[in-house]
Structures are given as C-alpha cells and as structure tokens.
C-alpha cells in the first residue's frame, strides 16, 4: 500500500487554513471517512509516513468544499503549495539551482515524498522538460492535477519566467504512466 509523508498532508492543511474557507480545516476534515479522519485526531507529523488513501481523501474533500468538485482547483492548490514549499523545504535548492537541475534531481525529491512511483526525467534542457511518473497506477487523479500546479509554482519560484506546464499523459486517460511537460523563457 502506498504511503505519503506527513509534510504533504500538512501542506494541504496549510492551504485550507490560508484560503479563508469558512469553517476552515474542521469543515474539510468533516468530509473524510471515519478511517481517514482518525489520522487527524493527533497532529500530523511532517516526517512520518501515512497511508496514501488519507492524502487522496483530503485532496477530494478540498476539491468538494473549496473547489467545484471537478478537480479544476487542484492545479491552483498545487501552484500555491509549490510556491510555499519553495519558501520552506526547497528554499535552498530553489535559490541556488536552475530549473533544469531541480527537474533532473526530481527522482530524489519524489522518494522523500511518496514511497510509490518513480520520477523519470525523460528530457531536460534549457526552456523545456518532460518527466514521467511511472509505477504508480493507483495515483489519485486529484494528485495528478495537483502535481501539474506544484511544478508550475516551484518553477516560478526558481526563476522560470513564462512557465507553462501541461500533463501530456495520465493513467486516468488510459496511458501507462503520467507525464508532465513544461516550457519557459530562457
């Protein structure tokens, strides 16, 4: 069973807190199944591993309550959390590394974030990248959309001007893996 680090869950909770959503975090958590809600009875530990399903349920609850329930809010959530992560977890990396270096090292970052799936930087060059997220057929579609925005937010913080990111393949569309492509001005 896939697991995800607590800092990913905490990032989503921080998004809810700063979004100004009426009812805040308790309103979102009230949407979770009893099994998932049980993990929130104590503070989420950033460095602990949690069942991936808890993260997926949290994303879906955010989408239903803050978004429209159609996953269109997830890229914006990802963008904001990517920029937040750039100010915390990835601050040093984003200030000293180029976008290309960050993308090339993305397999290392993914392993620290999720214990399932592998990031494969297929093509990385100035102004363009293509990465595949392989071996994670059960990824929640909400996270696919979240990753799209997260890459954008991290790229902007790392200095990528005019960045545009798209998901060119997705397991939810029948592809063998998820793939993201991005361009920016060099």
- Give the second-level CATH assignment, the architecture of the largest domain: Alpha-Beta Complex
CATH class term of the largest domain: Alpha Beta
CATH superfamily of the largest domain: H-NOX domain
Which consecutive residue ranges, at least 5 long each, have pLDDT under 50?
A: none
* Rg, Å, rounded: 16 Å
Helicity, as a percent range: 40-55%
Spatial sequence of strands, sheet with the most strands: 3-4-6-5
Task: Describe the fold and architecture.
The structure is a single chain. The protein is of the alpha+beta class. The chain folds into two domains: 3-65, no CATH class; 74-185, H-NOX domain, CATH 3.90.1520. The protein is built from nine helices and six strands. It has helices spanning 6-19, 24-29, 34-37, 52-65, 74-87, 91-96, 99-104, 106-113, 141-157; strands at 3-5, 49-51, 118-125, 128-134, 161-169, 178-185. The strands form two sheets. It has a four-stranded antiparallel sheet. Strands 1-2 form a two-stranded antiparallel ribbon. Strand 3 (118-125) and strand 4 form a beta hairpin. The N and C termini lie far apart (41 Å). The mean pLDDT is 92.
